[in-house]
């Protein structure tokens, strides 16, 4: 299956870095697998949104060396703030941590494909990369409905890696809506 949004076409079977202990079946995904542990952190953040009635979306920002800079989860209901999406909160905290608005070399990992606001925010923050789990066919702005983050008219275009733990991320959302 070809994925137009995967950023690498490299064949996992020929990956010299592949760890056979971690990947006994030889079906590892060298593009997505490195982000799984960060996505699990984002999933845990997302779960924190639920008690306030917020849709479970969680995000983490990693620094250039992969260190955890900031986390966030959707707090729209909790705070009555239309901009309190997980990504915006995590980007703000990461910027506060670094002491500046630019986040070069940083990676935003989020459980759901960013909306237009968050896609705009991450381009503004100059993040190097956005990694997301579930796609959002109705409102996604990183490849589904729009592809704002890779619009060639913009002078900063983050790398996009989609579909990391996509099923777990989607399940968390469908469980939330089913239980309403
Ligand atoms: Zn958003």
Computed Rg: 16 Å
Fraction of residues in β-strands: 15-25%
Distance N to C terminus: 35 Å
**Helix and strand sequence:** HEEHHEHEEH
Assembly level: single chain
List bound small molecules: zinc ion
Spans where pLDDT lies below 50 across 5 or more residues? 4-21
Task: Estimate the global geometry from the Cα principal axes.
Answer: globular
Strand order of the largest sheet: 2-1-3-4-5
Overview of the structural elements:
The chain is of the alpha/beta class and 180 residues long. The protein is 28% helix and 15% strand. It is built from five helices and five strands; from the N terminus they run αββααβαββα. Strands 2-1-3-4-5 form a five-stranded mixed beta sheet. The chain is globular and about 40 Å long. The chain starts with 35 loop residues before the first helix and ends with a helix. Mean pLDDT is 89; it is low at 4-21. Zinc ion binds at residues 85, 87, 114-115, 117-118.
Give the structure's gist in a few sentences:
With 180 residues, this protein is of the alpha/beta class. Helix content is 28%, strand content 15%.
Write the layout of secondary structure elements.
Elements: H1 36-47, E1 58-62, E2 68-73, H2 76-79, H3 86-98, E3 107-112, H4 116-124, E4 129-134, E5 159-162, H5 166-178
Parallel strand pairs: 3-4, 4-5
Antiparallel strand pairs: 1-2, 1-3
The protein binds zinc ion (ZN).
The site of zinc ion (ZN) has 6 residues, from helix 4.
């Amino acid at each position: 299956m070809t994925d137009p949004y995967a950023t690498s076409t490299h064949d996992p079977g020929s990956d010299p870095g592949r760890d056979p202990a971690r990947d006994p079946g030889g079906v590892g995904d060298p593009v997505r697998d490195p982000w799984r542990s960060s996505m699990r952190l984002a999933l845990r953040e997302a779960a924190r949104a639920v008690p306030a009635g917020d849709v479970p979306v969680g995000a983490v920002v990693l620094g250039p060396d992969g260190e955890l800079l900031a986390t966030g989860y959707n707090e729209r209901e909790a705070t009555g703030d239309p901009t309190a999406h997980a990504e915006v909160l995590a980007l703000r905290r990461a910027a506060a941590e670094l002491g500046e608005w630019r986040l070069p070399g940083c990676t935003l990992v989020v459980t759901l494909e960013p909306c237009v606001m968050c896609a705009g925010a991450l381009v503004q923050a100059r993040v190097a990369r956005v990694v997301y789990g579930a796609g959002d066919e109705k409102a996604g702005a990183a490849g589904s409905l729009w592809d704002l983050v890779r619009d060639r008219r913009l002078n900063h275009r983050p790398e996009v890696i989609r579909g990391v733990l996509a099923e777990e991320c989607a399940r968390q959302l469908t469980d939330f809506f089913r239980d309403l």
